[in-house]
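Appendix C: a fully annotated inverse folding record. The material below is reproduced so that readers can follow the format used throughout the book. The structure is listed first as tokens, followed by the designed sequence.
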């Protein structure tokens, strides 16, 4: 039986596993692949080399440690997690069954895609799902944000302080909030409601988005596109027995502990920042909390 099982291979899961190993816990991380759901790398036309978020060097070090210790990782998909008396049982798609005394859910959240031509090809080449990670790379450029919720509004407000112009493309209508009022008064923000994106254009990098409103269709030339549509937390494995909010985020306390003793959570499956640096810290905190939990038993 493992001391700790971590589910998820993004920054939070990788950091949790490396931290657990450094505490000499018998740990296992199960993930489909390294990297999680979000692409953190971004390359732009006028940038030299490959720009990656701050903290990637640290994350690479953790990843290399896990690659070297192949007995602590299993590249597979978890299909079932169930609590038993004093421990947890984890089943994978390939038919493996693991048991652990504690559990960390670092399964992230699934971003809603536009599902339009050019989106997949230009992701990481001007198209991003995280303004918190990439906004600072678009200083003085024209960018577009797609979405209408709070995350889209925050992204537009953040980008307005860095970009030359921000086009906020709203699929329905903006809610009446103080932030909405501020955005409407911001000179370099242009809001278009009841509009949909039909194509992302550019050969190697984002050069523009084609949008439609009713029967009208036009192109907006931009160098960056931020897709801020609703995301779905990947909490289904434990949602029936661990407390979640109305949107499915796993509820945690300041120690990353959930409502179920021995279960901890970190990263986007909880309601925290999209920043990978924050996920690194949350993953380390969850692993240390699991370690302290085990020390008391």
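Designed amino acids, in order:
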């Amino acid at each position: 039986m493992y001391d700790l099982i971590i589910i998820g291979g993004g920054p939070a899961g990788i950091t949790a596993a490396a931290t657990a190993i450094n505490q000499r816990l018998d740990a296992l991380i199960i993930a489909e692949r390294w990297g999680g759901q979000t692409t953190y790398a971004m390359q732009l036309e006028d940038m030299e080399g490959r720009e990656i978020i701050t903290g990637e060097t640290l994350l690479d070090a953790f990843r290399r440690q896990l690659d070297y210790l192949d007995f602590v990782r299993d590249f597979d998909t978890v299909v079932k997690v169930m609590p038993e008396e004093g421990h947890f049982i984890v089943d994978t798609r390939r038919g493996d069954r693991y048991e652990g005394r504690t559990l960390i859910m670092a399964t992230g959240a699934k971003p809603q895609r536009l599902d339009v031509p050019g989106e997949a090809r230009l992701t990481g080449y001007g198209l991003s799902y995280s303004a918190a990670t990439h906004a600072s790379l678009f200083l003085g450029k024209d960018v577009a944000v797609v979405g209408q919720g709070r995350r889209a509004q925050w992204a537009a407000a953040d980008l307005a302080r860095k970009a030359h112009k921000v086009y906020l493309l709203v699929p329905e209508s903006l809610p009446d909030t103080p932030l909405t009022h501020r955005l409407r008064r911001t000179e370099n923000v242009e809001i278009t409601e009841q509009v949909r994106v039909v194509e992302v254009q550019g050969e190697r990098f984002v050069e523009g988005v084609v949008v439609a409103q009713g029967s009208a269709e036009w192109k907006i030339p931009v160098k960056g596109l931020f897709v801020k549509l609703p995301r779905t937390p990947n909490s289904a494995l434990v949602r029936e027995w661990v407390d979640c909010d109305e949107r499915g985020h796993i509820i945690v306390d300041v120690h990353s502990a959930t409502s179920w003793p021995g279960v901890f959570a970190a990263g986007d499956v909880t309601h925290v920042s999209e920043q990978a640096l924050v996920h690194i810290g949350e993953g380390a905190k969850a692993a240390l909390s699991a370690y302290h939990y085990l020390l008391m038993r």
